[in-house]
Automatic annotation (TrEMBL):
Residues 8-234 form the ABC transporter domain. It comes from Rhypophila decipiens. CDD domains: ABC_ATPase. One of its GO terms (molecular function) is ATP hydrolysis activity. Residues 266-275, 290-310 have a biased composition (Basic and acidic residues). SUPFAM superfamilies: P-loop containing nucleoside triphosphate hydrolases. InterPro entries: AAA+_ATPase, ABC_transporter-like_ATP-bd, P-loop_NTPase. This is ABC transporter I family member 20. PANTHER family: SKFA PEPTIDE EXPORT ATP-BINDING PROTEIN SKFE. Keywords: ATP-binding, Nucleotide-binding. Residues 266-310 are annotated as: Disordered.
Amino acid sequence: MPPSAPTVETFNLTYTFPDHSTGVNDISLSLPARSRTLLIGANGAGKTTLLRLLAGKRLAPHGSIRVSGVDPFTDGLEGVTYLGLEWVLNAIVRTDIGVAELLRSVGGDVYPDRRDELVSVLDIDVDNWRMHAVSDGERRRVQLAMGLIRPWTVLLLDEITVDLDVWSRAQFLGWLRRETEIRECTIVYATHILDNLAGWPTHLVHMHLGAVKGWGPTQEMMKEIDKEEEDNKDGGDLGLVKGEQRGNSKLGQLVLRWLRHDLRERGPRSKRGPEGRSYITGGLGGYGLESKDGKHSGAPGLKEERDYLI
Ligand SMILES: Nc1ncnc2c1ncn2[C@@H]1O[C@H](COP(=O)(O)OP(=O)(O)OP(=O)(O)O)[C@@H](O)[C@H]1O
Protein backbone atom coordinates (compact mmCIF):
# COMPACT_ATOMS: atom_id res chain seq x y z
CA MET A 1 0.00 0.00 0.00
CA PRO A 2 1.45 3.40 -0.93
CA PRO A 3 2.19 5.86 1.90
CA SER A 4 -0.46 8.27 0.60
CA ALA A 5 -3.38 9.30 2.78
CA PRO A 6 -5.75 6.39 3.46
CA THR A 7 -8.96 7.32 1.72
CA VAL A 8 -11.67 4.65 1.47
CA GLU A 9 -13.88 4.61 -1.61
CA THR A 10 -16.53 2.31 -3.02
CA PHE A 11 -17.99 2.48 -6.51
CA ASN A 12 -21.47 1.03 -7.01
CA LEU A 13 -20.48 -1.77 -4.67
CA THR A 14 -23.00 -4.60 -4.74
CA TYR A 15 -22.71 -7.96 -3.04
CA THR A 16 -25.15 -10.85 -3.19
CA PHE A 17 -24.80 -13.87 -0.92
CA PRO A 18 -24.69 -17.36 -2.42
CA ASP A 19 -28.34 -17.83 -1.37
CA HIS A 20 -29.14 -14.79 -3.56
CA SER A 21 -30.01 -12.51 -0.64
CA THR A 22 -28.70 -8.99 -0.88
CA GLY A 23 -25.77 -8.04 1.35
CA VAL A 24 -25.19 -4.55 0.01
CA ASN A 25 -26.61 -2.80 -3.02
CA ASP A 26 -25.02 -0.13 -5.21
CA ILE A 27 -22.98 1.61 -2.53
CA SER A 28 -20.82 4.55 -3.54
CA LEU A 29 -18.86 6.29 -0.81
CA SER A 30 -15.79 8.46 -0.63
CA LEU A 31 -14.43 8.69 2.88
CA PRO A 32 -11.55 11.12 3.23
CA ALA A 33 -8.19 10.51 4.85
CA ARG A 34 -8.20 10.73 8.65
CA SER A 35 -11.97 10.55 8.78
CA ARG A 36 -13.81 8.68 11.52
CA THR A 37 -16.95 7.30 9.96
CA LEU A 38 -19.86 5.71 11.78
CA LEU A 39 -21.96 3.14 9.95
CA ILE A 40 -25.50 3.48 11.27
CA GLY A 41 -28.43 1.21 10.52
CA ALA A 42 -30.89 -1.25 12.00
CA ASN A 43 -29.98 -4.91 12.45
CA GLY A 44 -29.53 -6.43 9.01
CA ALA A 45 -28.88 -3.07 7.29
CA GLY A 46 -25.63 -4.33 5.73
CA LYS A 47 -22.97 -2.79 7.99
CA THR A 48 -21.02 -5.97 8.65
CA THR A 49 -21.23 -7.01 5.01
CA LEU A 50 -19.80 -3.67 3.93
CA LEU A 51 -16.98 -3.85 6.48
CA ARG A 52 -16.13 -7.42 5.49
CA LEU A 53 -16.03 -6.44 1.84
CA LEU A 54 -13.73 -3.52 2.63
CA ALA A 55 -11.54 -5.90 4.63
CA GLY A 56 -11.34 -8.44 1.83
CA LYS A 57 -13.16 -11.07 3.91
CA ARG A 58 -15.71 -11.26 1.12
CA LEU A 59 -14.83 -10.90 -2.51
CA ALA A 60 -15.99 -7.57 -3.90
CA PRO A 61 -16.49 -7.09 -7.65
CA HIS A 62 -13.27 -5.94 -9.32
CA GLY A 63 -12.80 -2.17 -9.20
CA SER A 64 -15.59 -1.53 -6.69
CA ILE A 65 -13.31 -0.70 -3.74
CA ARG A 66 -10.31 1.56 -3.52
CA VAL A 67 -8.18 2.21 -0.46
CA SER A 68 -5.72 5.05 -0.82
CA GLY A 69 -6.66 5.21 -4.46
CA VAL A 70 -5.67 1.65 -5.31
CA ASP A 71 -7.47 -1.66 -5.50
CA PRO A 72 -6.46 -3.28 -2.22
CA PHE A 73 -7.13 -6.78 -3.53
CA THR A 74 -4.69 -6.34 -6.40
CA ASP A 75 -2.10 -4.25 -4.60
CA GLY A 76 -2.27 -5.72 -1.10
CA LEU A 77 -4.27 -5.07 2.02
CA GLU A 78 -1.30 -4.23 4.20
CA GLY A 79 -2.28 -1.72 6.86
CA VAL A 80 -5.98 -2.59 6.78
CA THR A 81 -7.09 -3.97 10.15
CA TYR A 82 -10.54 -5.50 10.57
CA LEU A 83 -11.75 -6.22 14.08
CA GLY A 84 -15.04 -8.07 14.05
CA LEU A 85 -16.81 -11.03 15.54
CA GLU A 86 -14.57 -13.84 14.30
CA TRP A 87 -11.56 -12.07 15.71
CA VAL A 88 -13.33 -11.65 19.03
CA LEU A 89 -14.22 -15.36 19.09
CA ASN A 90 -10.61 -16.45 18.64
CA ALA A 91 -10.18 -19.26 21.15
CA ILE A 92 -6.67 -18.40 22.30
CA VAL A 93 -7.93 -15.52 24.42
CA ARG A 94 -9.75 -18.00 26.68
CA THR A 95 -6.76 -20.20 27.40
CA ASP A 96 -4.46 -20.11 30.42
CA ILE A 97 -2.01 -17.64 28.97
CA GLY A 98 -0.60 -14.43 30.41
CA VAL A 99 -1.33 -11.02 28.90
CA ALA A 100 2.34 -10.11 28.44
CA GLU A 101 2.93 -13.23 26.37
CA LEU A 102 -0.17 -12.59 24.25
CA LEU A 103 0.83 -9.00 23.53
CA ARG A 104 4.34 -10.18 22.63
CA SER A 105 2.87 -12.67 20.16
CA VAL A 106 1.21 -9.86 18.18
CA GLY A 107 4.26 -7.61 17.96
CA GLY A 108 4.19 -5.91 21.35
CA ASP A 109 8.00 -5.86 21.57
CA VAL A 110 8.30 -4.39 18.08
CA TYR A 111 6.01 -1.48 18.99
CA PRO A 112 6.70 -0.99 22.71
CA ASP A 113 5.41 2.59 22.80
CA ARG A 114 2.08 1.66 21.24
CA ARG A 115 1.84 -1.41 23.48
CA ASP A 116 2.41 0.62 26.63
CA GLU A 117 -0.01 3.31 25.49
CA LEU A 118 -2.75 0.78 24.78
CA VAL A 119 -2.09 -1.01 28.08
CA SER A 120 -2.53 2.30 29.85
CA VAL A 121 -5.58 3.51 27.87
CA LEU A 122 -7.36 0.17 28.23
CA ASP A 123 -6.25 -0.21 31.85
CA ILE A 124 -4.78 -3.70 31.37
CA ASP A 125 -2.98 -5.52 34.17
CA VAL A 126 -0.10 -6.99 32.20
CA ASP A 127 1.57 -8.62 35.22
CA ASN A 128 -1.34 -10.43 36.81
CA TRP A 129 -4.11 -11.18 34.31
CA ARG A 130 -4.34 -14.66 32.83
CA MET A 131 -6.82 -14.95 30.02
CA HIS A 132 -8.84 -17.90 31.33
CA ALA A 133 -9.46 -15.97 34.54
CA VAL A 134 -10.52 -12.47 33.47
CA SER A 135 -13.95 -10.90 33.01
CA ASP A 136 -15.53 -10.49 29.55
CA GLY A 137 -14.77 -6.78 29.53
CA GLU A 138 -11.18 -7.33 30.64
CA ARG A 139 -10.75 -9.95 27.93
CA ARG A 140 -12.16 -7.55 25.37
CA ARG A 141 -9.71 -4.86 26.43
CA VAL A 142 -6.79 -7.22 25.92
CA GLN A 143 -8.19 -8.21 22.52
CA LEU A 144 -8.47 -4.59 21.47
CA ALA A 145 -4.87 -3.97 22.49
CA MET A 146 -3.78 -7.07 20.55
CA GLY A 147 -5.60 -5.96 17.43
CA LEU A 148 -4.38 -2.38 17.51
CA ILE A 149 -0.70 -2.63 18.48
CA ARG A 150 0.53 -2.79 14.90
CA PRO A 151 0.09 0.66 13.36
CA TRP A 152 -2.81 0.25 10.95
CA THR A 153 -3.71 2.76 8.27
CA VAL A 154 -7.37 1.77 7.87
CA LEU A 155 -9.27 0.42 10.85
CA LEU A 156 -12.55 -1.35 10.18
CA LEU A 157 -14.32 -1.85 13.47
CA ASP A 158 -17.45 -3.96 13.73
CA GLU A 159 -19.02 -3.27 17.11
CA ILE A 160 -16.67 -4.93 19.55
CA THR A 161 -16.78 -2.53 22.46
CA VAL A 162 -20.03 -3.88 23.90
CA ASP A 163 -18.35 -5.39 26.96
CA LEU A 164 -16.39 -2.29 27.87
CA ASP A 165 -17.57 -0.22 30.80
CA VAL A 166 -18.52 3.35 29.96
CA TRP A 167 -15.25 4.82 31.19
CA SER A 168 -13.05 2.32 29.32
CA ARG A 169 -15.03 2.85 26.14
CA ALA A 170 -14.68 6.62 26.41
CA GLN A 171 -10.91 6.26 26.89
CA PHE A 172 -10.71 3.91 23.94
CA LEU A 173 -12.72 6.19 21.65
CA GLY A 174 -10.51 9.09 22.68
CA TRP A 175 -7.44 7.06 21.77
CA LEU A 176 -8.88 6.20 18.36
CA ARG A 177 -9.60 9.85 17.78
CA ARG A 178 -6.04 10.82 18.66
CA GLU A 179 -4.72 8.19 16.28
CA THR A 180 -6.48 9.90 13.36
CA GLU A 181 -5.14 13.26 14.54
CA ILE A 182 -1.50 12.27 14.83
CA ARG A 183 -1.14 9.57 12.17
CA GLU A 184 -2.21 9.06 8.57
CA CYS A 185 -5.07 6.72 9.31
CA THR A 186 -8.80 6.36 8.77
CA ILE A 187 -11.52 4.60 10.76
CA VAL A 188 -14.85 3.07 9.74
CA TYR A 189 -16.86 1.94 12.75
CA ALA A 190 -20.20 0.12 12.81
CA THR A 191 -21.98 0.54 16.11
CA HIS A 192 -25.36 0.73 17.79
CA ILE A 193 -23.92 2.23 20.96
CA LEU A 194 -23.95 6.00 20.77
CA ASP A 195 -22.74 6.76 24.31
CA ASN A 196 -19.78 9.11 24.31
CA LEU A 197 -19.86 9.37 20.54
CA ALA A 198 -21.12 12.96 20.31
CA GLY A 199 -18.43 14.88 18.47
CA TRP A 200 -16.50 11.72 17.60
CA PRO A 201 -17.54 10.88 14.05
CA THR A 202 -16.44 13.11 11.21
CA HIS A 203 -18.81 11.31 8.83
CA LEU A 204 -22.06 9.36 9.09
CA VAL A 205 -23.30 6.67 6.74
CA HIS A 206 -26.98 5.75 7.07
CA MET A 207 -27.63 2.21 5.81
CA HIS A 208 -30.97 0.49 5.25
CA LEU A 209 -31.72 -2.88 3.63
CA GLY A 210 -28.24 -3.08 2.14
CA ALA A 211 -28.27 0.38 0.61
CA VAL A 212 -26.88 3.72 1.71
CA LYS A 213 -29.75 6.14 2.27
CA GLY A 214 -27.51 9.06 2.98
CA TRP A 215 -23.97 9.88 3.99
CA GLY A 216 -21.75 12.86 4.52
CA PRO A 217 -19.92 14.99 7.06
CA THR A 218 -21.57 14.70 10.48
CA GLN A 219 -22.37 18.40 10.69
CA GLU A 220 -24.24 18.25 7.40
CA MET A 221 -26.17 15.17 8.46
CA MET A 222 -27.04 16.77 11.80
CA LYS A 223 -28.87 19.62 10.09
CA GLU A 224 -31.84 17.28 9.78
CA ILE A 225 -32.20 17.11 13.55
CA ASP A 226 -31.34 20.79 14.04
CA LYS A 227 -34.28 21.62 11.80
CA GLU A 228 -36.55 19.36 13.82
CA GLU A 229 -35.47 21.08 17.02
CA GLU A 230 -36.18 24.43 15.46
CA ASP A 231 -39.67 23.29 14.51
CA ASN A 232 -40.00 22.35 18.16
CA LYS A 233 -42.74 19.82 17.59
CA ASP A 234 -43.96 17.87 20.60
CA GLY A 235 -41.92 14.70 20.40
CA GLY A 236 -40.92 15.51 16.83
CA ASP A 237 -41.10 12.62 14.44
CA LEU A 238 -39.78 10.10 16.91
CA GLY A 239 -43.00 9.31 18.68
CA LEU A 240 -41.32 10.28 21.92
CA VAL A 241 -42.49 12.89 24.34
CA LYS A 242 -40.36 15.97 24.79
CA GLY A 243 -38.64 14.90 27.99
CA GLU A 244 -37.54 11.62 26.43
CA GLN A 245 -36.00 13.44 23.50
CA ARG A 246 -33.99 15.63 25.78
CA GLY A 247 -32.35 12.59 27.35
CA ASN A 248 -30.73 11.65 24.07
CA SER A 249 -27.72 13.24 22.44
CA LYS A 250 -28.37 14.95 19.13
CA LEU A 251 -26.68 12.03 17.44
CA GLY A 252 -28.98 9.68 19.32
CA GLN A 253 -32.01 11.66 18.20
CA LEU A 254 -30.88 11.57 14.60
CA VAL A 255 -30.29 7.82 14.68
CA LEU A 256 -33.64 7.13 16.37
CA ARG A 257 -35.31 9.17 13.67
CA TRP A 258 -33.54 7.27 10.88
CA LEU A 259 -34.30 3.86 12.34
CA ARG A 260 -37.92 4.68 12.97
CA HIS A 261 -38.35 5.81 9.37
CA ASP A 262 -36.49 2.73 8.12
CA LEU A 263 -38.71 0.36 10.07
CA ARG A 264 -41.83 2.09 8.80
CA GLU A 265 -40.51 1.95 5.25
CA ARG A 266 -39.66 -1.73 5.55
CA GLY A 267 -43.11 -2.59 6.85
CA PRO A 268 -44.17 -5.72 8.67
CA ARG A 269 -41.86 -8.72 8.53
CA SER A 270 -44.61 -11.29 8.52
CA LYS A 271 -48.37 -11.22 8.77
CA ARG A 272 -48.69 -14.84 9.88
CA GLY A 273 -48.14 -15.84 13.47
CA PRO A 274 -48.65 -19.07 15.35
CA GLU A 275 -52.17 -20.58 15.34
CA GLY A 276 -53.22 -18.64 12.29
CA ARG A 277 -53.16 -15.34 14.12
CA SER A 278 -51.56 -12.46 12.35
CA TYR A 279 -49.29 -9.94 13.95
CA ILE A 280 -49.99 -6.28 13.45
CA THR A 281 -46.40 -5.14 13.48
CA GLY A 282 -46.82 -1.69 11.99
CA GLY A 283 -43.13 -1.97 11.17
CA LEU A 284 -42.28 -1.67 14.82
CA GLY A 285 -42.28 -5.22 16.08
CA GLY A 286 -45.00 -7.73 16.84
CA TYR A 287 -46.69 -6.30 19.90
CA GLY A 288 -50.27 -6.14 18.66
CA LEU A 289 -52.20 -9.29 17.84
CA GLU A 290 -55.09 -9.76 15.51
CA SER A 291 -57.29 -12.85 15.88
CA LYS A 292 -58.52 -14.99 12.95
CA ASP A 293 -61.80 -13.11 12.80
CA GLY A 294 -59.91 -9.89 12.43
CA LYS A 295 -60.67 -8.57 15.89
CA HIS A 296 -57.77 -6.76 17.40
CA SER A 297 -56.83 -8.29 20.72
CA GLY A 298 -53.74 -6.16 21.22
CA ALA A 299 -50.99 -6.28 23.76
CA PRO A 300 -52.05 -4.98 27.16
CA GLY A 301 -52.18 -1.21 27.20
CA LEU A 302 -50.95 -0.81 23.63
CA LYS A 303 -53.49 0.42 21.11
CA GLU A 304 -51.74 2.51 18.52
CA GLU A 305 -48.44 2.39 16.73
CA ARG A 306 -47.43 5.48 18.62
CA ASP A 307 -47.49 3.44 21.80
CA TYR A 308 -44.68 1.16 20.68
CA LEU A 309 -41.55 3.07 21.46
CA ILE A 310 -38.32 1.95 19.86
N1 LIG B 1 -23.96 -15.50 5.25
C1 LIG B 1 -25.09 -14.92 4.86
N2 LIG B 1 -25.86 -15.49 3.92
C2 LIG B 1 -27.01 -14.89 3.51
N3 LIG B 1 -27.45 -13.71 3.96
C3 LIG B 1 -26.71 -13.09 4.90
C4 LIG B 1 -25.50 -13.66 5.40
N4 LIG B 1 -24.97 -12.81 6.31
C5 LIG B 1 -25.83 -11.78 6.38
N5 LIG B 1 -26.87 -11.95 5.55
C6 LIG B 1 -27.99 -11.01 5.32
O1 LIG B 1 -27.45 -9.80 4.82
C7 LIG B 1 -28.12 -8.68 5.39
C8 LIG B 1 -27.10 -7.73 5.99
O2 LIG B 1 -26.49 -8.37 7.10
P1 LIG B 1 -25.34 -7.66 7.94
O3 LIG B 1 -24.76 -8.68 8.87
O4 LIG B 1 -24.41 -6.97 7.03
O5 LIG B 1 -26.19 -6.57 8.74
P2 LIG B 1 -25.73 -5.56 9.89
O6 LIG B 1 -26.15 -4.19 9.48
O7 LIG B 1 -24.30 -5.74 10.22
O8 LIG B 1 -26.64 -6.05 11.10
P3 LIG B 1 -26.39 -6.05 12.69
O9 LIG B 1 -26.61 -4.65 13.15
O10 LIG B 1 -27.45 -6.98 13.17
O11 LIG B 1 -25.01 -6.57 12.96
C9 LIG B 1 -29.12 -9.25 6.40
O12 LIG B 1 -30.39 -9.23 5.80
C10 LIG B 1 -28.66 -10.66 6.63
O13 LIG B 1 -29.74 -11.52 6.89
